[in-house]
Every structure is written in structure tokens, then in C-alpha cells.
Design goal:
By secondary structure, the chain is α+β, with helices and mostly antiparallel strands. It is 39% helix and 26% strand. The strands form 2 sheets. Strands 1-2-3-4-5 form a 5-stranded mixed β-sheet. It has a 5-stranded mixed β-sheet with strand order 6-7-8-9-10.
């Protein structure tokens, strides 16, 4: 059964770049030139990174967002939450070679990072920035200080701002929540399209199809891949709870933390 996921995980889009400390020459200008040569970069369901420029002393990355999954208006209303998520995400991935390289180089030359999100259809935009001091703080903070469960909670909160979301085939993604050892996705089901009883009768088949889809999707979707990594670091599984819009019947399908580790 198809599902579409979105997590505001802006700090981690840097890991999709094919950069290393060895092919950069230690200057921001050269690094920006290298990044331009590999654009556009697909960020999966989020959209595409399309531009990088020096703007007002910061290095600005432009992301063209798929508005089926990204509500620009909502992001405009929550700049502080978006900024904190970005900062914590970069802190969590600071040991990744691409993230480390950019933090080191930008800090050295006193540059900050700005993300400019633009809706592909509406043209509406929102910016979020980290200052040079923010990057220096990230650089000097030990990785062991990162609270991955707090970061997961922040991403869940950000995802909830996108709900409810119509995803087709009689499904509406209504919310996401952390419940015990699982991150739970809630879906309202139009029972003219799907039977909850029939879904539960085919539990093993649906369970395997959910695992197969996660495995296939994470390789092509950096947003989903980084979210799954965060679930693993937090020792959480993923659950999908389907609720009949007429009967109120529910069916829940679990992918355990151990199963996620095998993806």
C-alpha cells in the first residue's frame, strides 16, 4: 500500500553531495563552484536543490519544493522551529564528510548557511539561516551531546505541520506521533476504497509490502533515508495505523526497530 512521507530535515540534505575534503581546495568560492557543477540534486519527496550562491555573507542553497508534500505557508509561520531543526540536524550529522567539510570551510571564512525553500507551483518562499557563530558552535560541540530522541521529536513536530495530507487511494495522512518504541503514522481510510477487515486479514502481506517499499524508497529519497537513520539511532520502529472513516475500525502494522536495522 502506497504511502508518502515528508520530514523537514533540512540540515541533512548536505549528505547527498558528492564532496570530500580531498577534491575541495580549501576556499568557499571553490567549494561553491564544485557544488554548482553537481546541481540539481534530488532530495526525494522534498524536491530538488537547484542553486547555490553567496548572498549577504552567507552561502545560500535554493530548494525547489514539491508542494504536494511541503506546505510553504506553514513553514513561513514556524521559522524558529525550522531553524532549530536545521541546527540539530546538522549537529547530528557533523561527522559526515560532506557536512563536516562545509562546516569547517564556512567557519574558517566566517560564512553562514541559508536555505531558501521555494514552492515549485506557487513560487512562495521561506528562508532559514544559521550564522557563522552557529556553525562554530556546531563544530565545537561533541557529537556525543546530540540528543537523537529530541531531534526525532522535533522532526515529528515539523511533519505534523504538514497534516492532514491527502495522499490518494482513499487515504488521508492525519498525523504522526511517537508512541513507546514506535513512530506511528495515522491514516484515515475511505472505506469505499479499502476495507480495514480485509487489510487485517492480509497482515503478513501488507507488513512485507511496507518493508519492501521502505527499502526501495530510501535509496532514492535522501529525506526518507535520513529519517530512517534517525529512527535507528533512537531505537524506534515505524508503525502505520489505518482508521476507517465510517466504522472507526483500526488496523496497525508494525516494522520493528530490529527490522529497520536490516534495511
Amino acid at each position: 500500500m502506497k504511502k508518502k512521507l515528508f520530514v523537514v530535515f533540512v540540515g541533512l540534505v548536505l549528505v547527498s553531495m558528492g564532496l570530500t575534503p580531498y577534491n575541495a581546495q580549501g576556499q568557499v568560492k571553490t567549494l561553491v563552484k564544485e557544488i554548482r557543477q553537481i546541481l540539481p540534486i534530488s532530495l526525494g519527496t522534498m524536491g530538488d536543490m537547484t542553486e547555490v550562491n553567496q548572498v549577504d555573507g552567507n552561502i545560500e542553497f535554493t530548494i525547489q519544493c514539491n508542494e504536494e508534500f511541503v506546505d510553504i505557508k506553514t513553514l513561513q509561520q514556524q521559522p524558529d522551529q525550522l531553524r532549530q531543526t536545521m541546527k540539530q540536524s546538522m549537529l547530528a550529522q557533523k561527522d559526515d564528510p560532506n557536512v563536516k567539510l562545509l562546516i569547517d570551510e564556512f567557519s574558517k571564512y566566517n560564512k553562514g548557511i541559508t536555505y531558501r525553500f521555494i514552492g515549485k507551483n506557487s513560487g512562495q518562499s521561506v528562508k532559514v539561516s544559521l550564522t557563522p557563530d552557529d556553525l562554530k558552535e556546531i563544530k565545537n560541540t561533541p557529537s556525543t551531546v546530540v540528543d537523537v530522541e529530541k531531534l526525532l521529536e522535533m522532526n515529528v513536530q515539523s511533519s505534523n505541520t504538514q497534516c492532514p495530507m491527502v495522499i490518494g487511494n482513499g487515504l488521508v495522512w492525519s498525523k504522526i506521533a511517537i508512541e513507546g518504541n514506535y513512530v506511528v503514522y495515522y491514516y484515515d481510510v475511505d472505506e469505499d476504497y479499502a476495507s480495514i477487515d480485509l487489510m487485517k486479514a492480509n497482515e503478513d502481506l501488507i507488513h512485507q509490502s511496507l518493508i519492501d517499499e521502505l527499502k526501495a524508497s530510501q535509496d532514492a529519497d535522501v529525506t526518507l533515508k535520513t529519517f530512517i537513520k534517525l529512527c535507528k539511532q533512537s531505537h524506534k520502529g515505524i508503525a502505520y495505523r489505518y482508521i476507517g472513516s465510517t466504522t472507526g475500525d483500526t488496523g496497525t502494522f508494525y516494522i520493528t526497530a530490529d527490522e529497520l536495522e536490516l534495511l
